[in-house]
Amino acid sequence: TGVVASATNVTDAFIQVARTDGTIIGTVVVPRFGPRQLSTAFSVPLTAVPVGDNGRADLRLTLRNGTDDSVCGPVPEVALTSLNVAFRGAATVPATIQDAFGTVVNRVTVYTPEDPSAAAAQTTLGVVAAIANHYRPQRVAIDVVESADARLPRAASPLDRAVVIREEGGAGSVRLERAGLPGAVLVISGDQDSLPDQVALFRDGLTDLAQTDSAAVESVGDREVQGSDSVTFGEFSDRLSVEALGTASLVPGFDPTILALGRPGAVDVALKARYTPVRDDERANVMAVTGGEILHTSALNASGSLDTKFTIPAAQVAANEPLEFRVSYEPAPGACSPRSVPLTFQIDPSSTASSSTTPVRMGGFSSVPLGWQPTVQVALDNTNPAQLDAAAELLASVQRSSATALSPVLVPLDQAIASNTGALVVADAANARPLNPPINTEDSSTLVDLAAQIRLAIPDGLGTIQAFSQNSRTVVLVSTSGSWDLVDPLFAYLDDQQGDLANLRGDVLVAGRAGQPELMTVRADGPQAEVDQVGTSWVTWLGISAAVIVLGVLVVVAVMLYRRRFGDSNGPDNSATS
């Protein structure tokens, strides 16, 4: 379902919805938009669309325009919004661990003990990150509930899943209780040593091996840092070609998180491509664009091949700005007709994107996915029982924006404050003060770190989610200088926006007692090129430099006087006494 929101340069148009084999399964009529025409809803049944081995159902949408000069005239444009897919079939009841997390799931509820131990909390965070990564980029609601009830819960819907974390003696295990029956529940159990190890079954994609209702992870070795400093286009994308008659865009889907850059730098792109040869009386070019900035332009010619290089700036890499190629093709004058053949442009899969070491300051929400690669420390000060659920929700949000599986590690608050590893901290504002966030507290005052630091008195306090650079790493802080219910509107805002944390602008999401969330930029609207702080040491160096210059001048003057008095020889002129 969706809405035809607007249309320009179209007449008697409709959109064909087809399978990848060309079979048409439905059409969407594009209305004539005028003063009285509003957006129009549409619905297309997808029953006949097969689901591939990758768990994906692919569709092809083609605009058919009735205007005769649509080929050579203005480019027709139709905007579709509010796209949604609703599942109406019979849900399969999981019979093994392998199919506990099927292709389609609405909600996952993770039940953990009340006042969970470090092992139980670590396991909960690991399971949440693994589930979010499994369904990425789909939005699957994941809730964490602390419960003292020993009975197995029941899912509210066939498309919901329940996971129970139990800390108990003995070896660790993963069991599917009520296997093959409605309300099947996944139980992860073990002691303080073996319980966190069970997460590896889901984190490392090994559930396909668990074609049974019980399994156990006996041991887990040290996890090596994933990623590489170079990746080919063929590794991260299957969208490598486009046809252009006029202008067309190709977004290959480059995601710098696949490089697992904890401290990202610029990315050097070596682009190779093949295209339809361009005659002398035709014009064609390709532009590389990211974040609204044109990085490189290449003219296309009769050779039919392109081999060029350009660099994506470090700040745009850190913000995960999409890389786009805009291909334009203009046939010879007077040659454009409905029979004109478009230019085909295809990127060679062996083209590479390689990272450099140029540092950036990782401030702002858009820097979070890269700033947490691949390990993120999680610290809770336990001043509120809902902190584990808040941490889990933000972990899932960031994981949806990262191609690399996150590795959350639960640590004490003081360790997270002093560390140089990316961190998620959920703590009272007074306890988080040493992190020096953009909005901080000091006694009863709120400090806003603008160019001129401003001190405010906010009697009821503020709830905040902040993303900032500290100790040369990225920190996300969930905090309150009042009661913890001040934070609730911030998470409701994230849910209502249907967007992930990394898509927000600025570095502070804040709400006061009125419960109105506001996005702010206090320090940074995103990653910035890192510049050494000037400080006051320049005064000392200026004094030293001035002294050196003065000393140099004195030496020059002494030499000149010496030469004037004694001549240009190596010693005094003794000719008068010879």
Highlighted features:
578 residues, seven-stranded mixed β-sheet, 34 strands
List the helices and strands and how they pair.
Elements: E1 2-8, E2 14-18, E3 24-29, E4 40-42, E5 60-64, E6 77-81, E7 107-112, H1 118-135, E8 141-146, E9 160-167, E10 173-177, E11 185-190, H2 200-203, E12 214-215, E13 230-232, H3 233-236, E14 241-244, E15 246-250, E16 267-275, E17 283-290, E18 293-299, E19 305-312, H4 314-318, E20 323-330, E21 343-347, E22 352-355, E23 360-361, H5 368-371, E24 375-380, H6 387-399, E25 407-410, H7 413-418, E26 423-426, E27 439-442, E28 445-448, E29 454-456, E30 463-470, E31 473-480, H8 488-497, E32 508-511, E33 518-520, E34 528-529, H9 537-566
Parallel strand pairs: 7-8, 7-9, 9-11, 24-25, 24-26, 26-31
Antiparallel strand pairs: 1-4, 1-6, 2-3, 2-5, 10-11, 10-12, 13-22, 14-21, 15-20, 16-19, 16-21, 16-22, 17-18, 17-20, 23-34, 27-28, 28-29, 30-31, 30-32, 32-33
Helix pairs in contact: 1-6
Low-pLDDT windows of residues:
532-551, 565-578
Assign the structural class, choosing from mainly alpha, mainly beta, alpha/beta, alpha+beta, or little secondary structure.
alpha+beta
DSSP strand (E) fraction?
Answer: 25-35%
- According to DSSP, the number of beta strands is 34
Distance between the termini: 113 Å
| Fraction in helix | 10-25%
Query: What value does the Rg take, in angstroms?
Result: 31 Å
The average pLDDT value, as a whole number, equals 84
Tally of contiguous helical segments:
9
Shape: globular
Strand order of the largest sheet: 25-24-26-31-30-32-33
Largest sheet: 7 strands, mixed
